[in-house]
Amino acid sequence: MKAIMVMFDSLNRKYLPPYGNSWVKAPNFERLAKHTVTFDNCYCGSMPCMPARRELHTGRYNFMHRGWGPLEPFDDSMPEMLKKGGIHTHLVSDHSHYWEDGGATYHTRYSTWESVRGQEGDCWKGNLDEDIKPSTVLYDQNPLLRSFKMPMYRQDAVNRTYRKTADAGCQTEVFDKGLEFIETNCNKDNWFLQIESFDPHEPFFTYEQYLSIYNMSENSGPDWPPYDQVHETAEMVEMMRKRYAAMISMCDENLGRVLDLMDRYDLWKDTMLIVNTDHGYLLGEHGWWAKNMMPCWDEIVHLPLFIWNPECGCKGGHRKQLVQTIDLAPTLLAWFGQPVPADMQGKDLKDVVMNDGKIREYALFGYFGNQMNVTDGKYVYMMNAVNSGEQLYEYTLMPCLINRRMGQELEYAVLSKPFSFSKNMPLLKIPSASFSYDITSKYGSMLYDLEIDPEQNEPVSDRKTEGKMKDAIQLLMKTNDAPEELFVRFGFEKNI
Questions:
Q1: Could you tell me where the DSSP H helices lie in 275-349?
Q2: What stretches of 23-77 show up as alpha helix (H) in DSSP?
Q3: H-type helices in 219-233, by residue range?
Q4: For the chain, how long is the longest CA-to-CA vector?
Q5: For residue 478, pLDDT beyond 70
Q6: Confidence bin at 88 (pLDDT 50/70/90)
Q7: pLDDT of 294 strictly over 70
Q8: Cβ-count burial of 178 within 10 angstroms (0-12 exposed, 13-18 middle, 19+ buried)?
Q9: CA dist 204 to 140, 195, 243, 244, 249, Å?
Q10: 63, 197, 233, 416: least buried by Cβ within 10 Å?
């Protein structure tokens, strides 16, 4: 048994031909869809990057108990469990958040791992030349975000001077290393390879051969959208969408290289293939760029997912059932014959692949401290807090944020009793603030019918359906042993 996961970051399903896009050039995604089953109702759970990766490892939601952070000492890690079960696990990635304080326990769960440096503001090359200045940015209107990102913009400009051609690009090098692992081990058994590309995450830095597909060049304006509302012209929005499309075309070419090796070595007979992402991305839809700052619109949370399972032999079809990121860990454990721990709440997707079998009624998703969101595949409900002044807390034994250790926050930390999933370990309970809830709360609670309004243009008023969705949120919070204050925040009783 072997398995390959090709994971892209910030992949918007609406830019992929298998999901109906007619203008983005991605023939290898079309080729992929012919070899796999395409999931039409896959949703993320926790966002953004590292919360999503914690779910990939642990098979359970992250966002109700903490925000961005490392794996916890009590976490079940799918790659580590495979490693302990005699399966060699190998990670190749240029996702620089793995090497920061807030992600530094993920990559070391694999048997072996390789890093590729230089994406985004990765603290890679030290070049103090004052002539190197960021010139490709649409600046965030929020001065706090801008000041946070200015060093990142400068470092990105430095990094690009060392990645001037596609052959030397981060994404190409990631796939080079992944293909090297396949070439070396194609005749061996019991391995799992995760090829993880930071692209098409911003900045949309790519090369002439991909930009030219969309009549663009490297001088066609900024390639780094802000985390902000859209203040730009329609022409600028269109240009940024084309830059994103050029990134997709580059991702597509490298995906094709993996499919070529699957063909060359007939890996289809014994190798599971998963192509996935952590979350999507807004490119002007709903008046926003990026993610994190706004409600969880469909473009952010409704994800592309493709799976080939040799035991099922199903390919070329679509699956309608509701699945989530938390299902990937138990799917891979089951594929390799390893036990799935009780704390994993995701489900093995084999029956969905085989028969489109139903594995859940509802999917929960969101950001730490923000709205609570749920879908049944037809309706999506985005719920505002009823008591938004209720204090938020992060529960952790790894007090780190995205790129730093916690400091003054710990002055007010207390020791909390264990949760049902923390292996009898008490946790630090640390007061926290939600940096984006003030923005999303202005929209109010919203209910959408995706069957009649897939673009989420007009919320519907349906008290009966809204009541069902609230009940689903409350039950899923209880099932996941959400902290008491979260029930108070949303006006629920914990013991229903």
A1: 298-301, 328-335
A2: 27-35, 49-58
A3: none
A4: 63
A5: yes
A6: very high
A7: yes
A8: buried
A9: 16, 20, 6, 6, 12
A10: 233
CA distance 327 to 342: 13
Cα–Cα dist 469/392, whole Å: 23
Residue 238: which pLDDT band, with cuts at 50, 70 and 90?
Answer: very high
The predicted pLDDT at position 493 comes to: 82
DSSP 81: H
**What value, to the nearest 5°, has the Cα angle with vertex 61 and ends 60 and 64?**
145
Edge-first strand order for the sheet with 363-367 is 46-47, 363-367, 372-375, 379-383, 446-449
**Which pair of tokens denotes residue 273?**
């293939």
- Say yes or no to pLDDT of 428 above 70: yes
CA distances from 381 to 48, 375, 459 (A): 19, 6, 9
Round to whole Å and give the CA distance between 46 and 149.
23
Q: Can you read off the two tokens belonging to residue 47?
A: 């966002």
Residue length, the chain?
Answer: 496
Any idea which residue has 């780190």 for tokens? Answer: 400
Best CA proximity match to 377, nearest among 60, 46, 56, 39:
39
- Does the pTM of the predicted model rise above 0.90? yes
